[in-house]
Amino acid sequence: MSKEQRLHPVAILFNFIKGIRQMIFLIIFGFVTFREDGLLYYILVIAAILILGLVSSILSWYRYTYRIKNEELRIEYGIFIRKKRFISKNRIQSIDLTQGVLHRIFKLTKVQIETAGSGNGAEVSLQAVKFAEGERLQNELKRGKNVDLEQEVIKPEFASYTISFKRLFVAGSTSGSLGIIIAILGGGITEIEQLIPERFFETTVAWVIGLSIFFIVGLAILVLIIVWLFGIAGTMIKYGNFTITKHHEEIFITRGLLEKKQLTIPLKRIQAIGIEESILRQPLGYVTLFAEVAGGTIGKGDDAATVLFPIMKKTEVASFLAELLPNYAIQEEEWTGLPKRALKYYLLRSSIFFLLASIVVFYFLPQFSLLPVLLLLAFIYLGYLRYKDAGYQVKGELLLLRYRLFSKRTMIMYHNRIQSFEKTQHIIHRKQDLGNMHISILGMMGTGSHYFLKELDVEMIDQLSDWYSYRDV
């Protein structure tokens, strides 16, 4: 492909919408400020800005060209200042295809190309090309040859995995997104409140106060159910049609009902595999499988790490890894846990805030003291779970760490993926032969991912330190 190519004309619309989205708060602020005095001037200014934005989008599209020549992708762009970017095929780490709603209407896709030095964003993002063109670009840049994908049938080395509707429903029901949605709604209501007339707001509050307590409780339960259903719908939209396939040295993940995404994960960029058991899913025997991937922006804005499979039975993890990531397929054995003298630290850390809150509430508002006491008991139990679940295993070159914040996590990582190993002790630790262990690996966007095991026996930390440093134990 030596001839210069332009993006699909729909890219003009995408650029125009992007510009409006960046100015939306300014537009709303201007409307609130000038809606009474100077509304005509406000409308004229907004119209002028929209016209300029449309002209700029058209020129940006016309001046943006790309082509593949001499084993590199060449891009030229810029309206007044012409810029050129050259990306060698050898530097390309992954090529992801994403289809939003508008993309799917016009049978287009967005091509995101990541390199080792992509930083906070993709190295190149082609906003809108024909889907067949996107696949052809992906094929040529990754495999170094131009192949007609309609004639080539790629047979995966291993079986693909998909998620059933039942599993997807369970994932949505136990996703824990209820609190996040409520927080977003609360923030949105706070912002909207400023635009609501004060008289209307006061009348509504007075009406709610005058209602029966049973009606208010019922209304609250109804709102929670609706928010819970939104959480289920969000999970299904995000992970609908989920498929993961391994081909050669890469893993391909396709997901999404409205916005269809195709992620490419080179196996050499995987730094660790994680198994997460949330408080809601653990009693049901379900887990989420994810990968810590070095560099790039895979999963940015969606997940802290790349989800390899949204939900599966814990008993299915071993066979799943055996087929897709056999190097990480291990059988768990007896864990090395924490000594009994570490328990008090975990109980104190998890409950100190609610202990102090209970004392304050009991002193000033004794009629409301039950709530902080219940929370205190709940977090004491959480502290016990954190103590009980923490531990590690060493299996040759593999290190397994297990810990809990709210969800229980098991991390599987190779020795050569660990970037640093740190042991810390304060004065009380030294008196009780305890210490904290801190391990770091490469994470998203070149930053580190960090794991801690606190109040380990010092002798165990020293053994792990010797293992990490290849010293004879």
UniProtKB/TrEMBL annotation:
InterPro entries: UCP026631 (IPR014529), YdbS-like_PH (IPR005182). Coiled coil: none annotated. Residues 61-140, 244-321, 387-441 form the YdbS-like PH domain. Keywords: Membrane, Transmembrane, Transmembrane helix. The chain crosses the membrane at residues 12-34, 40-62, 168-185, 205-230, 346-364, 370-387. This is YdbS-like PH domain-containing protein.
